[in-house]
Design a protein that fits this description.
Layout (H helix, E strand, L loop, with lengths): L8 E8 L3 H9 L6 E8 L17 E7 L10 H17 L5 E4 L3 E4 L2 E13 L2 E11 L25 H19 L4 H12 L6 E6 L2 E10 L5 E5 L4 E4 L3 E2 L2
Parallel strand pairs: 1-2
Antiparallel strand pairs: 2-3, 3-7, 4-5, 5-6, 6-7, 8-9, 8-12, 9-10, 10-11
Length: about 250
C-alpha cells in the first residue's frame, strides 16, 4: 500500500471481480480521500446498464475515491469532469491524437472508444460521503464490440506505455481539474472544456432511453451537465440519463 509521490494512496490488487468492490467497502467504512484501487485484471467488471466487461491484463483498471465537500445533487458532475481529465491526460501521452468526448463519459481516440467511466456516489444520511470513479483505459488491448468502434493506446505510440505512467498522468490531471471544479463556478469551466471536445452543435444524435429511441440534433449541455437535444419534430429536451447510440 505505497503512498504515491503526488499524494494518492494506491492499493495494488491482482485479479479482482471489479475495483469498485473494495473501493465501495472502503468508502462505506470511512476510507480516505484520494485513494486508488488498481487491479491487474478484472474478471467481473461491468459497464453501463450492467453489461459484462472482461478486463484482461495489460490495460489500466482502477477506481479513484474522492470525498469532496459537495451536496449530493452535484455528484453527477463527476462524469463530465472525469471525461475531460481522461481526454487531457491521454492527449499528453499521445501528442496530436484525435480525442473526442461522447456523452456522458466515453473518450474516443481516432473515433474508437479508448476509455470509459462508471461513477457511483456513496450517500450517507443525506450527505455525499464519497465519489467512486471506476475507470478503464484500453492500453494494450481493445475489445471487439458489435455496435461501436474501439481503440487502444498501443496503436498510436512508438514505445510500450508503462501503466504506472498512464495512471500518474491521469491522477495529476485529475488533481488539477478538481482544483478548478471545486472553486465557485468551477463546473462551468469543466462543462466548457467538455463541449470543446464534444459533438458539434447541430450534429445529429440518437439516444436510447429504455426501450425507446429519440432522434434529433445536439444542442449543448445544461447547467447541470444534462444533454440538450432538439427532436426531429422540433421539441427541445433535456436528457439526464441515457445512452448515445453510434
Amino acid at each position: 500500500m505505497p503512498l504515491d509521490p503526488i499524494g494518492w494512496t494506491v492499493h495494488r490488487l491482482g485479479a479482482v471481480d471489479s475495483t469498485m468492490t473494495p473501493a465501495r467497502a472502503s468508502a462505506r467504512n470511512g476510507g480516505s480521500d484520494r485513494t486508488v484501487f488498481l487491479a491487474r485484471e478484472q474478471i467481473g467488471g461491468h459497464g453501463r446498464h450492467g453489461r459484462p466487461w472482461y478486463s484482461p491484463p495489460g490495460n489500466l483498471y482502477f477506481t479513484a475515491v474522492l470525498c469532496p465537500d459537495l451536496p449530493p445533487r452535484r455528484a453527477g458532475e463527476c462524469s463530465l469532469l472525469m471525461s475531460v481529465v481522461l481526454a487531457e491526460a491521454l492527449g499528453a501521452l499521445i501528442p496530436g491524437a484525435d480525442l473526442r468526448l461522447k456523452w456522458p463519459n466515453d473518450v474516443l481516440l481516432f473515433g474508437g472508444k479508448v476509455a470509459g467511466l462508471l461513477p457511483e456516489a456513496v450517500i450517507d444520511g443525506g450527505a455525499l460521503k464519497a465519489l467512486l470513479l471506476g475507470i478503464g483505459v484500453n492500453v494494450a488491448h481493445k475489445p471487439d464490440l458489435p455496435d461501436r468502434a474501439t481503440s487502444r493506446l498501443a496503436d498510436h505510440v512508438t514505445k510500450e506505455l508503462d501503466l504506472d505512467d498512464v495512471l500518474g498522468c491521469i491522477l495529476r490531471t485529475l488533481d488539477r481539474w478538481c482544483g478548478i471544479w471545486l472553486t465557485a463556478g468551477g463546473f462551468v469551466r469543466v462543462r466548457d472544456a467538455w463541449l470543446a471536445l464534444g459533438p458539434v452543435v447541430g450534429s445529429p444524435v440518437s439516444i436510447k432511453l429504455g426501450e425507446n429511441r429519440i432522434d434529433g440534433s445536439f444542442r449543448g449541455l445544461g447547467e447541470d451537465g444534462a444533454l440538450l437535444i432538439r427532436e426531429t419534430d422540433g421539441t427541445d429536451r433535456r436528457i439526464l440519463a441515457g445512452e448515445v447510440l453510434g
